[in-house]
Amino acid sequence: MAGNERLYIVTYDIGDQKRWRRVFKVMEAYGRWLQFSVFQCRLTPRRRAALGARLDGIIKPSEDHVLIIDIGPADAVDPRVESLGRPFESIKREAVVV
Amino acid sequence: MAGNERLYIVTYDIGDQKRWRRVFKVMEAYGRWLQFSVFQCRLTPRRRAALGARLDGIIKPSEDHVLIIDIGPADAVDPRVESLGRPFESIKREAVVV
């Protein structure tokens, strides 16, 4: 199962505080917090699709914007991310499903 | 020259408004705005290194955090980015140097 997991960076601009909190809660269930509106997720194709559907159900396209960036296989030794200010550690195993 | 350009997503959390504006101005010179604290850049290795050095010279590591995410060769047909809310278009040519 873990072999088909990929790492994703998810960033979002949400125009409304209530929707922002809903997006934040969904993201907490799927990944690990990195920055104010940025999460890292390690996902199978199935969970990746589920996350997209969850977010799609929350956001208002005219006011909100979400980017889901695939940065490669989860167990690649070196995801191509440079972190300035504090270290970046890729998620080593699947996040616990809440 | 263009053949060795790669696309990057840069996200930042900056603890101070003055430094945030300085980071924003540098990012405007190197890429294209995507979200509140998120830019897309198309960079040669030389400009990629220059950007890292510029940001490194501005941020305060104890309060700020910058992620520079390599999403692949700039001319790849399909950068693996899904955008919800509005379309994502990868930069088709090198940004004008300001």
UniProtKB/TrEMBL annotation, chains A, B:
Chain's role: CRISPR (clustered regularly interspaced short palindromic repeat), is an adaptive immune system that provides protection against mobile genetic elements (viruses, transposable elements and conjugative plasmids). CRISPR clusters contain sequences complementary to antecedent mobile elements and target invading nucleic acids. CRISPR clusters are transcribed and processed into CRISPR RNA (crRNA). Functions as a ssRNA-specific endoribonuclease. Involved in the integration of spacer DNA into the CRISPR cassette.
CDD domains: Cas2_I_II_III
Pfam families tied to this protein: CRISPR_Cas2
Keywords, ordered alphabetically: Antiviral defense, Endonuclease, Hydrolase, Magnesium, Metal-binding, Nuclease
Designated gene of the protein: cas2
GO biological-process terms attached to the record: defense response to virus; maintenance of CRISPR repeat elements
Similarity comment: Belongs to the CRISPR-associated endoribonuclease Cas2 protein family.
Self-association state and partner proteins as the record states: Homodimer, forms a heterotetramer with a Cas1 homodimer.
Matching Gene3D superfamilies: 3.30.70.240
SUPFAM superfamilies: TTP0101/SSO1404-like
Binding site for Mg(2+): D13
PANTHER family given in the database record: CRISPR-ASSOCIATED ENDORIBONUCLEASE CAS2, CRISPR-ASSOCIATED ENDORIBONUCLEASE CAS2 3
Name of the molecule in the record: CRISPR-associated endoribonuclease Cas2
